[in-house]
Amino acid sequence: MRFAILFPDISPDLFAIAIGGFEFALRWYALAYIAGLLLGWWVIVRAVKRADLWPDNTAPMRPEQVEGLLTAVVLGVIIGGRLGFVFFYQPGYYLQNPLEIPQIWQGGMAFHGGLIGVAVAAWLFCRSNGIRPVHVADAMSLVIGFGLLFGRIANFINAELWGRPTDAPWGVIFRGTLAQDCSGPVGLVEIGGQVLCARHPSQLYEAALEGALLLILAFYLVYRRGWFKTPGAITGVFLATYGIGRFIVELVRQPNIEFVTPDNPIGYAILFTPGIGVTMGQLLSLPMIAIGLALILLARRRAA
Questions:
Q1: pTM of model > 0.90
Q2: Distances (CA, A) of 271 to 167, 261, 264, 265, 285
């Protein structure tokens, strides 16, 4: 038996108010979305006011147009994120229960689906406003780390999307993770006479790699190295950085139950041989890495 961190008793609701028999609650997850979107909107508005950051010292859009972009992004995140979760991770369940697909308040959003939704929504916004999509993609790539950072922290607070069992001293015993949740001796911890299962806090790993690291890198490249002047480069940085970070964390993240079978306990979406395969998160991240690196190389080559 080893040391582990007992998950703090944090309510998933920031606050809840009961009015006339109805209860209104603000959840940490909703707050993460709101904070990420508003902070991203604020940063993009300031960026388009800095004409010197952009090619030919000309911003791609006016500050007041960013509000319309925010509306498009919100719709893309919600619709794309939900449909991505439905089709990428639990298609079997939702084919049998199609009426539950719109019930986003029950939880279940997928980043890769949200990314596709945002891309489509942003493209429609650009088309209707006569703006080059590559510049909008770069602007959004600068700030998307805020949503990823806050969202993964909210996942941790909600005690969801945790990692696999671990003996590491920073392993966390999340709510409801009993001994039987550990497939073997790894992760077993005895606390107060009860044997529990410690897991990787993979949500915090993702917050660091997909959120904080991406923000630091993107802000440095834009404000110190002038990468907005190379259209497509920052978009490539986002795609490659997120893809690599997600691919790494998937090695210790608990697999989705849709792909777990007795012959495939790791939850590989594609199983090559026992113990060697690719999870759905890794499978979806591979094209992001490839496209991201290609965009960086092409953008830098054009600028040379």
A1: no
A2: 26, 11, 7, 11, 16
